[in-house]
Amino acid sequence: MTTLPAPVRRRRRWPSGWHLVLVPTALVMVSPLVWMLLTSLSSRAETRRFPAGLPSRLRWHNFVTAWTDSPFGHWLLNSALVSGTCVRVPVITTHSVAVHARFSLPVSREAAWETLRAAPGVVLNDDPERGEYPTPADVVGTDPTWVGRVRESLDDPNGIEFFVCGDNLRKGAALNTAQIAELIATEYA
Fold first, then answer.
1. CA torsion, ordered 51, 53, 55, 61, to nearest 10 deg
2. Residue 147: strand pairing partners
């Protein structure tokens, strides 16, 4: 009959250095959620008490009221202000730029449209309802600069955002040189 060796007792190791960093970080990240739950289950007088502690009696009505009557849920869902422009077109001869222009006074989308329509050498192609806006592939071989996706900035009341495309061989190099030469010739003539 064979006897089994006695189990080896392993010495318990102390947590590594990462535990010393991750545990406090996790506590800091979770604390706003815990505070929100505790205050939503507390009475009004208890929510104004500092430091906030456990509620003396759980009040589920306050929890329901906190999520239905207050704008917290609406604010939580709509708190991220994102204004994105994404164009992925592999084109050799055009350049594009997403512009965030900031002014000293608020500018409406309509005022920006009027200004861009009146600008020489600019074509405004902006009809979001029909999906019309300039892309780098569309402006190849054209002289003007194309502007579209004009919208008011979400994070700045004085800002306008738009997308600009142009043929960098025509407008960016050759045509620009000719137009600058014409301006200089008329100015000094």
1. 70
2. 124, 164
Backbone region of residue 149 per phi and psi (left: phi > 0; alpha: psi in -120 to 50; beta: other values) = left
Would you state the structure tokens that stand for residue 183, as one six-digit string? Answer: 């301006």
Reduced to 3 states, what is the DSSP secondary structure of residue 86? Answer: coil
Token pair of 63, please?
């929890």
From the list 36, 49, 41, the residue with the least C-alpha distance to 76 is 36
For residue 51, give the amino acid letter. Answer: P
What are the per-10-residue average pLDDT scores of the chain (189 residues)?
Answer: 66 68 83 72 63 59 64 55 64 84 88 91 89 87 90 86 87 78 87
**Which of 169, 150, 171 minimizes the C-alpha distance to 161?**
150
pTM for this model (two decimals): 0.52
For 66, residues 6+ apart whose C-beta sits below 8 A from its C-beta are 39, 40, 72
Tokens for 62? 């306050």
